[in-house]
């Protein structure tokens, strides 16, 4: 250790001596050589520092920052420029129409026609309303070359009361009808004026109905309705019809099933049948369940469902169970321009005496009433808009129906007494057959502008029957044209044109097996009814916001066509009247 210390001290002494010698030497001699010292720069983080946003000042006196105020010295400059006044664009404004809750209309026309309507609607409070309507149409007749009276009378009315609450909305309705039609189509030349003496061809219908429906919020039942109608005539016919429906959305996992439960009962009786005096009684009770699931994905809407129906014929004591498809879909191919749709559905159609009389008032009170089994109804089509003012619908359909109701002429009884007013070839019965129907059709609607609209529909039918020779009184072609024109604020007009193609009917005698009388070799004949056009028009003038007058003309071409065999219609008809709107 001592040795190391000795060496270190010796080295320090030697280095000190050399430095002293060098300094003495520099004092004596100035060397002019340039010496460059080269050393690479190696930066480090410690060489950088961050300037603080608010640095601290080391000055002994720190002055506070003074507020600086800027002043603008505005000097007015004279100018002769005058801007032009703007002109507001003129808008095509329309005065908001005044809407009234009630109106009354009355008109009189040819054939001693009377037409009256009354519609009422009044809000008792914020959530209570009461209303109703009354409609009457009658004519004293006057068709040429008839053997029996052809006047008719048709009156309908209904009263309504409703409430709308936070969780429920409901209403109840009560109504009735009174109708008189005449079996004026006595077949000629089988009968003459002599045969018509003493024949009272009037047939009077009457009926009353009551119904109620409700819509519920936050409930297991979304909607429900109940309906009851009693219907009869002056031939001791009587019918009761009851329908109840309950609809609900049933949640299952992440989706909902819409289900509707329907209970339907029709029961009634007729005093006799067409040939004999034996009474007819009928009763059909059905209960159906129709669950449906709707799937919506972008442009596709798909409804998948099925209808399950149980039917019991209470008079015959027979029961049947039916399963029907209930599937439909629509797909937007090109937005609103082209939409494809289609589906296949079916169902049990409950036929009633009331429905038959409203479709054909010349039926006889001797009908058999049974439901129609519509096995399936397949349909497909394209619909959409060509432009904002033109829309279209092209469709095709095929139906297969068992026990489809067909109106067939009641033939004239042969070899027994004609003791009823409907025994003169002037009434219709109902026959049931298995019928397949192929239908092609289309619709076109044109809104030329907001004042003029035009609509056109056309359908072509092909029928195939199982037992009957033809699909009686069903047209092959049906078409219609509608037009409405708002001429100005006061004047308005419209027109309609209907076309119905040929129909097949029967005419002649109904024979009875009786050995005392010979059987006719050709008791019946088939008659083809010609197709017909029916053109109608109307025009009106608004006197003020409340009062307007109108005029109508029907069957402008004055065609003496027959909608039903032996039943010519009234020729050219004209009617004029007034309508008054008001509020309570």
Give keywords:
584 residues, mainly beta, 22-stranded antiparallel β-barrel, 27 strands
Task: Please provide a brief summary of the model.
Keywords: Cell outer membrane, Membrane, Receptor, Signal. The chain has 584 residues and is mostly beta strands. Helices cover 7% and strands 55% of the residues.
Description:
The protein has helices spanning 2-28, 193-196, 353-359, and strands at 102-109, 113-125, 128-139, 152-164, 168-182, 202-216, 223-233, 238-252, 255-270, 280-297, 300-313, 318-334, 338-349, 372-387, 390-409, 412-413, 428-449, 452-465, 477-486, 491-500, 503-510, 524-529, 532-542, 547-554, 562-564, 567-568, 573-582. With 584 residues, it is mainly beta. The strands form three sheets. The chain has a 22-stranded antiparallel β-barrel. The radius of gyration is 47 Å and the shape is globular. Its main location: membrane. One of its GO terms (cellular component) is cell outer membrane. Keywords: Cell outer membrane, Membrane, Receptor, Signal. Residues 1-22 form the signal peptide. InterPro entries: Beta-barrel_TonB_sf.
